[in-house]
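Contributing new complexes? Match this layout with uridine-5'-diphosphate.
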Amino acid sequence: MKCDFLIVGAGFSGSVLAERIANDLKKDVIIIEKRNHIGGNCYDEFDEHGIFIHRYGPHLFHTNNKEIVDYLSQFTNWYEYQHRVLAYSKGEYYPIPINKETINRVYKINLRNEEEVKAFLDNIREKRFPIKNSEDIIVNQLGLELFERFFKYFTYKQWNYYPQDLSPSVCGRIPVRYDSDDRYFQDKFQILPEDGFTKMFEKILNNNRISLILGHDFKKIINSINHKYLIYTGPIDYFFDYKFGKLPYRSIEFRFQNFKLESYQPAPVVNYVDKEVPYTRATEYKKITGQKSNSTTVSFEYPNSGEEPYYPILNDVNFALFKKYESEAKKCRNLILCGRLAEYRYYNMDQVVARALHTYKTIINHL
Ligand code: FAD
Ligand code: UDP
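Output block (do not edit by hand):
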């Protein structure tokens, strides 16, 4: 077998690069994907009960970048979807991100406007400077009580580290709202592909110049494929046979359960923030897709340190190890790294598409 570009991974980064190289550069691409499907972690499908689910946990597209929306709109129509999350704490549901309502309910008070919320938080927050970790960033805005209740144990369950041992960028993803806005995101574009992500990926990859090899680890077959350039979107430490040691990634077990109920929970996602509950999030997919059915499927997320990498674990030690792998990669001619696992970055989907489009530009500039 022979191609110009060999790409490892058929997630967003691999698929967008394949599309650009095939359609724009008019070069041949072979993609090797170890799973038996395309789409990476964004893969969605109907389950055995006829409910449309996201196989690797809820994927909500949100961005302020119109260029990314325009690019993806070549491959899908969209529907508007504004995500909402409730935290379940000590038997009650509260809006997340923490907003005026959350604070009023926790403290049994009646703050009426943003000024009152800001003044209240100014009293309870604990000033931290400099902000060195995920505890500092939350306690500095919300104080210890809200931090412990909504962030400390959820984060520990999710990462197996307390927030004090994680980069501020982890919990810093969650804003504080001084008003009653209970949407999870405030981006300009909050949309989902009309027929799902998998169908969108099928269109992205629909080109005779793109060949797909599914169900194979690249290491087993790479020697039989003659290629000029290699684009790698898998875990970088695996690429180098863990020569500097294993780079930690957090894994998750998604346990799906179908209930013979119209509705299972009061929101599309419920975050279980108490330490006693072994799972983190419960996602009810019908509430994301709007599907009508008399049964409903819910996924429960059990984070673990298993083999399938989902999240880079961001802290200084791990990032330093990543840097060693990255400089090793720079020594390899014609090797291009892109994506969440290869770049060890906590990219959202829109950021990964932007990253792939940027990588494509650097490729064409260097040819
Ligand atoms: P991936 O999708 O991981 O693709 C990499 C591909 O490489 C995989 O298909 C993998 O099987 C393949 N691969 C790896 N190793 C090998 C190998 N040795 N040989 C062959 N193939 C290999 N983003 C959002 O914007 N909104 C969300 O709501 C959101 N929710 C998320 C929820 C969860 C639980 C997770 C884990 C992520 C979420 N994300 C979300 C992030 C989103 O999934 C990523 O930004 C995106 O999938 C990254 O694309 P990628 O191509 O870099 O990586
Ligand atoms: N987080 C938390 N409590 C919450 C929501 C989030 O402690 O109710 C923390 C947790 O560490 C999580 C991080 O904030 O991993 C980022 O949350 P986000 O919802 O962005 O996680 P993702 O969707 O990327 O899994």
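Reviewers usually confirm one structural detail per submission. For this one: Residues 2-81+190-247+312-366 form a domain with the Rossmann fold fold (CATH 3.40.50.720).
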